[in-house]
Amino acid sequence: MASLPIRSDSSALSHPEQQYLDLMRQVWTRGSERIDRTGVGTRSVMGAVLRFSLADGAMPLVTTKRVYWKTATRELLWFLTGSTNIRPLVLQGVKIWNEWPHARYVRETGDALALEDFVARIAEDADFAAKWGDLGPVYGKQWVDWPTYVPLGDGRFERGPGINQVSEVVRSLRENPGSRRHIIEGWNVAELDTMALPPCHKTYQFHVGGQESGNPRLNCVLYQRSCDVALGLPFNLWSAALLTRMLAQQTDLEPGELVWMGGDTHLYLNHAHLIEEQLRREPRGYPRLELLRRPPTMFDYEIGDFAVHDYAPHPPIQAPVAV
Fold this sequence. Notes:
Layout: H1 10-14, H2 18-30, E1 32-34, E2 42-53, H3 69-81, H4 87-90, H5 99-109, H6 115-124, H7 126-132, H8 139-145, E3 149-151, E4 157-159, H9 165-175, E5 183-185, E6 201-209, E7 217-228, H10 232-250, E8 254-268, H11 272-278, E9 288-291, E10 306-309
Parallel strand pairs: 7-8
Antiparallel strand pairs: 1-2, 2-8, 3-4, 5-6, 6-7, 9-10
Helix pairs in contact: 3-8, 3-10, 6-7
């Protein structure tokens, strides 16, 4: 393994992104090597914490490689629709979920259709997309339509009305800000086996602080059971901070702090080139997010409602996704 640089620049050490780079270095140099579900292999640590202020528009948008924040934003907005089919993402040019339904298609049909041809069919053929583009009850389904069941009285149950956890959090933040139950949960044990991928960023808990000073602010803790530090975490940090900013706007709160907590926190062994290159780079600037309007509800935001300022990142670093 190539030696990794040691930072001595005091400005880099004080930059909020430095904690992300330190975590990457820790996992790569001290993590346990493990055989994982994908067969690729990882270096992994258990338990990590990062903290980022969201005050004054600040966002944990990684600068040591370009992060496509609009792609991550489109994914978050897709979650909020409750959709579980990749077609709406494909039609927007978002590729991050394509590999999972493609792998299922190849496995179940025996047709070795190339990924790009599969994605083209998803875009062109709504019937094909309905059959092969679905991911099962992943994130958005649990967020806005958590299933309930009503007893029929003879030992059988029928499907009841779904629970919109996002709407419930908005309501509880407005009506009972001191509650300890402002939670959006994705880990529905009964439905894990029918999901293309069980939720990695699984539990969001929100907290209102600063009421005693007359300046209430919204904080978020995200617990992530499984985290790919190189490819996934930059998206996860952006999305959690964005969700917090949107909730704060909808509930007339100031943005506070994002606390990210990782369970199995890992790097893939085939990402060495990415890791070593990124750890040679210094953070650049302090990206800020501006919300350009206040939509009527959490479910009415559009990609044009968000503007990022002062983002001049290093170039992107390509690496394969483990499926």
